[in-house]
Amino acid sequence: MKRTPHLLAIQSHVVFGHAGNSAAVFPMQRVGVNVWPLNTVQFSNHTQYGQWAGEVLAPQQIPALVEGIAAIGELGNCDAVLSGYLGSAAQGRAILTGVARIKAINPKALYLCDPVMGHAEKGCIVPQEVSDFLLEEAAAMADFLCPNQLELDSFAGRKPQSLFDCLGMARALLARGPKAVLVKHLDYPGKLPDGFEMLLVTADGSWHLRRPLLAFPRQPVGVGDLTSGLFLARVLLGDSLLAAFEFTAAAVHEVLLETQACASYELELVRAQDRIAHPRVRFEATPIGL
Ligand SMILES: Nc1ncnc2c1ncn2[C@@H]1O[C@H](COP(=O)(O)OP(=O)(O)O)[C@@H](O)[C@H]1O
Ligand SMILES: Cc1ncc(COP(=O)(O)O)c(C=O)c1O
Ligand SMILES: [Mg+2]
């Protein structure tokens, strides 16, 4: 019997609704991965509501919890680490310590870093020290890096002029260490207005994918976290990077279709669970070169 992969997911938790682990854990479980959620914050709700209650986890708790798992002899079963929103650079460094600890026991373990920097227009911006940490320290240790366009711009220090420019910017990130860069959301001059586009860049090739852009009165939150989580889950389940990319696009689109049909602001993950596991839509990524 094939072993079920185990994944340590270090990101935020919201009590109500879906962002961070609250957007990614259930879908990753639903596709067949054992998830170990380590919540960097516990907030009542995501920050786009403009108000929330809750607390940030003390950075020293991250290595302490990882050591707790080591102490019961289970850390070597960890096949991958996913990190998302960071409250501080100290929290980020604590995650890297945990990743190093896991890789020392299981050298095959993978690390996916979602370099969450927020959106100025969404009112969510991370401190400069977190951006610097993501670029200078986390990127070097990550096997997979999943920026959106704003995060890619921040890494490159400029905005792109074309799709090929985005490709070049993502390729430049590969040189910092990751095996693959998944750009979860492209935006560049000349992009068709009715599409939502993503890019996968690996040492073996690069692929571009377009899916329909759906209309929402308020943009749902947690889509990026869902995207990174499903991509890593499918890689752990044995998909090629390209197959995991295409699956992720389809499953996320299914969630958005269900969310739109319900006129819901929060992602309809429970209602969409069968569509996540078995997407009915399929999007084919096309190779793209410089
Ligand atoms: N097919 C789609 N149609 C409309 N909006 C989408 C679609 N896919 C993603 N979005 C929205 O686009 C925005 C950008 O997503 P992205 O940059 O990938 O992640 P993040 O959720 O980290 O902001 C999000 O607000 C998301 O809700
Ligand atoms: C607590 C929390 N975690 C994570 C996120 C990131 O969500 P997204 O995937 O939309 O970037 C947000 C966005 O507001 C948030 O409030
Ligand atoms: Mg995001």
TrEMBL record:
Keyword annotations of the record: ATP-binding, Kinase, Magnesium, Nucleotide-binding, Transferase
Domain spans labelled Pyridoxamine kinase/Phosphomethylpyrimidine kinase: 71-256
Reactions performed catalytically: pyridoxal + ATP = pyridoxal 5'-phosphate + ADP + H(+)
Quaternary structure, from the entry: Homodimer.
Gene behind this protein: pdxY
GO terms (BP aspect): pyridoxal 5'-phosphate salvage
Residue positions binding ATP: 114, 151, 184, 211-214
Cofactor(s) required for function per UniProt: Mg(2+)
Name of the protein in its database record: Pyridoxal kinase PdxY
Known pathway: Cofactor metabolism; pyridoxal 5'-phosphate salvage; pyridoxal 5'-phosphate from pyridoxal: step 1/1
GO molecular function, one term: pyridoxal kinase activity
A cellular component term, taken from the record's GO annotations: cytosol
Role of this protein: Pyridoxal kinase involved in the salvage pathway of pyridoxal 5'-phosphate (PLP). Catalyzes the phosphorylation of pyridoxal to PLP.
EC number(s) per entry: 2.7.1.35
Residue positions binding substrate: 12, 47-48, 225
Annotated family: Belongs to the pyridoxine kinase family. PdxY subfamily.
Alphabetized PANTHER family for the sequence: PYRIDOXAL KINASE
